[in-house]
């Protein structure tokens, strides 16, 4: 799994002009599933996102997580994180998880996140407009290790 995580002051997603998800302080997370990803990859990635210390502590250092600051997640499905542009200029998406499987995988990821923190979302497989007020900016790329290498 892959994610691009951005610390935001606020963010929202619109589909057909309607807001489908909106947060104030928290993390805007573009998340994509690749072929061969497992629930173990999803759990590893979610734990990493929730514990990522990117919010300032009392010393002005990035020492607090989104959970520590009472923030929220705005999760946006993003298969284009698996784009391959090594050959030619048109991205290939062969490494992305197939749509039907990816939808169930993403929905399970969202439900797992919702059991731990306030979560808003975009709409899977929709054309979305994402509006964000990045804070910092702080933007971090996270990729789960292969399932067999994830420590228990």
Short descriptors:
single chain, 152 residues, alpha/beta, D-tyrosyl-trna(Tyr) Deacylase, Chain: A, six-stranded mixed sheet, two-stranded antiparallel ribbon, 2 helices, 19% helix, 37% strand, globular
Provide an overview of this structure.
This protein is of the alpha/beta class and 152 residues long. It has a single domain (2-147), classed as D-tyrosyl-trna(Tyr) Deacylase, Chain: A. 19% of the residues lie in helices and 37% in strands. It has 2 helices and 8 strands. It has helices spanning 39-51, 99-114; strands at residues 2-15, 18-23, 26-32, 55-56, 62-64, 72-77, 119-121, 129-143. Strands 1, 2, 3, 6, 7 and 8 form a 6-stranded mixed beta sheet that branches. Strands 4-5 form a two-stranded antiparallel ribbon. Strand 1 and strand 2 form a beta hairpin. Helix 1 (39-51) packs across helix 2 (99-114). The longest helix is centred in the last third of the chain and has 16 residues, at 99-114. The radius of gyration is 15 Å and the shape is globular.
Give a short overview.
By secondary structure, the chain is α/β, with parallel strands linked by helices. It has helices at residues 39-51, 99-114; strands at residues 2-15, 18-23, 26-32, 55-56, 62-64, 72-77, 119-121, 129-143.
- Roughly how many Å is the radius of gyration? 15 Å
Counting copies of identical and different chains, the oligomeric state is single chain
Number of beta-strand segments: 8
Average pLDDT taken over every residue: 94
| Share of residues in strands | 35-45%
Derived from helix and strand composition plus strand pairing, the structural class reads alpha/beta
Q: What is the CA–CA distance across the termini?
A: 17 Å
Number of domains: 1
CATH architecture: 3-Layer(bba) Sandwich
Instruction: Give the overall shape, derived from the CA principal axes.
Output: globular
Secondary-structure element order, N to C: EEEHEEEHEE
Poorly predicted segments:
none
CATH level-3 fold name: D-tyrosyl-trna(Tyr) Deacylase, Chain: A
Q: Count of DSSP helices?
A: 2
Give the full name of the CATH homologous superfamily. Answer: D-tyrosyl-tRNA(Tyr) deacylase
Largest sheet: 6 strands, mixed
CATH class: Alpha Beta
């Amino acid at each position: 799994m892959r994610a691009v995580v951005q610390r935001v002051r606020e963010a929202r997603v619109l589909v057909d002009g309607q807001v489908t998800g909106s947060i104030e302080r928290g993390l805007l997370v573009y998340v994509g599933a690749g072929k061969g990803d497992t629930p173990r990859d999803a759990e590893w990635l979610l734990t990493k996102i929730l514990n990522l210390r990117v919010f300032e502590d009392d010393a002005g250092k990035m020492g607090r997580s989104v959970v520590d600051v009472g923030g929220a997640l705005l999760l946006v499905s993003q298969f284009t994180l698996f784009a391959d542009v090594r050959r030619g200029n048109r991205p290939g998406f062969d490494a992305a998880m197939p749509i039907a499987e990816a939808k169930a995988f993403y929905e399970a990821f969202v439900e797992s996140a919702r059991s731990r923190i306030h979560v808003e979302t975009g709409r899977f497989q929709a054309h979305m407009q994402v509006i964000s007020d990045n804070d910092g900016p702080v933007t971090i790329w996270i990729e789960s290790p292969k399932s067999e290498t994830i420590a228990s």
